[in-house]
Design brief:
Length: about 100
């Protein structure tokens, strides 16, 4: 007996012309870039994060557009919607990561 069911197959990613895996892969790559560019973020909590921010946000529209073109669902509105949604989720995740690193260090 499973306590938690399977992940939903329909969600915001559907409206943006992305698959669930593509949506979360773009989010994961953006967060990973933030965490690892210029060394692990937990070693540089109080440093400038401009490079991390620029690269981690710049990859989002490019990756979304590539996935949408691959799926045959590219549209400027979908690209904008997916980019903004993933960017906001990335902002929340990276803020939590920085807060946790700041509390631990």
């Amino acid at each position: 007996m499973a306590l938690i069911g399977p992940l939903p197959t329909i969600g915001p990613w559907t409206a943006f012309g992305l698959g669930r895996g593509q949506f979360f892969a773009v989010l994961l790559v953006a967060v990973a870039l933030f965490v690892w560019i210029d060394g692990p973020v937990w070693r540089h909590v109080h440093d400038q994060h401009l490079g991390r921010l620029l690269w981690s946000y710049a990859v989002i529209p490019a990756a979304v557009a590539a996935a949408q073109v691959r799926n045959g669902t590219f549209g400027w509105g979908r690209l904008l919607g997916a980019t903004v949604t993933i960017a906001v989720l990335k902002l929340v995740v990276t803020a939590l990561v920085l807060a946790a690193c700041g509390m631990a260090g």
